[in-house]
Amino acid sequence: MLSLNEKREKVRNARISGCYRTFALLMVLSVLSCFSLVGCKKVKNDFPEIPSTESSETSETSGTTTVQDTSTMEITIASPLSYETCQYLAKLYYAKSRGLLGDGVTGETVDLDYLSSIDIPFVLSVYGTGENGCNASTLRQWRSTGDMPDIFLTDSFDVVVNESFAAPITDYLADNTLLSADSVYSVLLQDFYLEGKQYGIPYQTSAAVLYCDMEVLRQANINSVSFRQTRSSLLSLLADIEKLNDDELSVLPFYLAGNMMPYLPCSMYSSKYLSSSESDDRSVPAYRDAFAYVESIIRSGYSYESLSDSRIERLFSGISPILSRKLGVWCGTTDELMIYDNYMPYTLSMMQLPGIREDEYSSPLLTSYPLCVSSSCKYPKEAADLACFMALDEDALMLTSRLQQRQGYLPSISSPAVWKSVVKSQKYGDYLAQYHDLMDRAIMIPSVSNSEKFIQDIEYIQSNIEQLDIEKKEDNRDT
After folding, report:
1. What residue ranges do the domains of the chain occupy?
2. β-pair partners for 330
3. Strand 365-373, strand 151-153: pairing
4. How far apart are CA 251 and CA 193, in angstroms?
5. Is pLDDT at 1 greater than 80 in this prediction?
6. What distance in Å separates the CA atoms of residue 210 and residue 351, rounded to the nearest whole number?
7. With contact defined as beta carbons under 8 Å apart, do 394 and 418 qualify?
């Protein structure tokens, strides 16, 4: 009989998107994916201090001097945004900085022909990236060929800092009015604040959720689901789906329950992110109870980890579980929304991870992706200001949504107008908009780099799940 590792290897190439934040290697289509979560930074309570130019000494002298010849200045941006969108953003940035936009004009209403007519005093170049930015390998290649962008979105923040790809930008942002505690969610900004320095500006954020296919749930007479779930309501839901297998095996209630770790301790206890790298962390009640909950789902026979090889083959016949339309519930993040929507555009639904009490929202469990300024940038002050504008300016965010709406992402600022424009207008915006009033108690799950500490977490979780006596249990069920 194959081990769980061999089972996961068997299905790894059918995952739909790269970088699925989990310890299990999944299979949707033919793309390799895995959890790619960063190191375990504790969330601070205080808003990061951005010093004023009057009160701080500036070590980055090149960023505080006035550029003498802007006609030769070139700024390169690496992000998922198109060249056209970046050009409009740069022109909007210049128009607002010079007071040219006009009273009452916003990013939703500004005339694009007017923006097109504006000449910006620098050359703009654009590199395309994946939806969550560039990884460390791409950055290494750019640096080796001398093609490093000045501003880049990244999914590998820890590596970016450790290998000095990104410059500290604290002093460059000293007088930037967009960095206001009344507007920016401090929990996001702090995620990129290390050793007293700001290395990144939160640009886009995704949330951990449970997905479900209503086509499968309706077979179990479940016609609707509440976004707000608890540990008991989720178990009840899975038990109802499992009843479809009373006569013969026809559906799988949950795909890889272990994917809920490491989110689960935070959702069920409103704790900060709990690591399992150290024995002291593993002994914390919230962590132990969360793992016991995952184990209960597996031992009940509800999850993929519960299945023997014969049952996997009987149910899926080599097809990816998620694409098989025989799967009830699985764990993912909101940036994957449109991947699943491609296969179930009318039956895809979402729920929060199990919360603490009935009819209450759990804290949002977030992953944020930053814009960084390259350490090789010739104009770091100008690049930092432009990056800050792209990520945190209301009009910039509304214009981006208008030109190139992106699904499954939350903004880094609290503006109701931005949430209406950027979030509410998305296909699944009614689900995502529920996070607006919850962001102040969000918990950051470090998942934008495979830090050594996080890899140890995943290995520990995987090892413990593999020790469950599920093979014997499943053999008994087969007989």
Report:
1. 4-34+207-365+452-478
2. 211, 255
3. antiparallel
4. 45
5. no
6. 5
7. yes
DSSP conformational letter for 424: I
Token pair, residue 308, equals 């023997």
DSSP letter for each residue of 212-230: EEHHHHHHTT-----S--B
Q: Please compute Rg for the chain using Cα positions.
A: 23
Task: Please give the Cα distance from 38 to 26 (Å, whole number).
Answer: 19
- Cα 18 from Cα 35, distance rounded (Å): 9
Q: Is residue 357's pLDDT more than 50?
A: yes
Alpha helices for 300-440 (secondary structure H)? 309-316, 337-341, 380-392, 394-403, 416-418, 429-432
251-308 pLDDT, tens per residue? 999 999 999 988 999 999 988 888 887 788 888 899 999 999 999 999 999 999 999 8
Strand 197-198, strand 193-194: pairing: antiparallel
The alpha helices in 244-354, defined as continuous H runs, are 264-269, 279-282, 285-299, 309-316, 337-341
Task: Report whether pLDDT(27) > 60.
Answer: no
Q: Could you tell me the two tokens for 163?
A: 């290998």
> At a CB cut-off of 8 Å and minimum separation 6, what does 122 contact?
70, 73, 74, 75, 90, 379, 382
Q: Is 273 left (phi over 0), alpha (psi -120 to 50) or beta?
A: beta
pLDDT tens digits, one per residue of 51-93 = 444 433 333 333 333 344 445 799 999 999 999 999 999 999 9
Mean pLDDT of the residues in the chain? 84
Scanning the structure block, which residue is given the tokens 């977490």?
Answer: 457
pLDDT level of residue 449 (50, 70, 90 thresholds): low
Peptide bond into 262 cis (omega under 30): yes
Query: What six digits make up the tokens of 149?
Result: 């962008």
CA proximity to 19, closest of 38, 6, 32, 5: 32
The residues, any chain, with a CB within 8 Å of residue 141's CB and separated by 6 or more, are none
Q: Is the pLDDT of residue 413 over 50?
A: yes
pTM: 0.83
Closest CA to 433 of 446, 422, 448: 422
> Helix or strand or coil: residue 435?
helix
Range 4-34+207-365+452-478: architecture per CATH: 3-Layer(aba) Sandwich (3.40)
Name the residue type at position 349: S
Cβ contacts of 340 within 8 Å, gap of 6 or more:
16, 211, 322, 332, 348
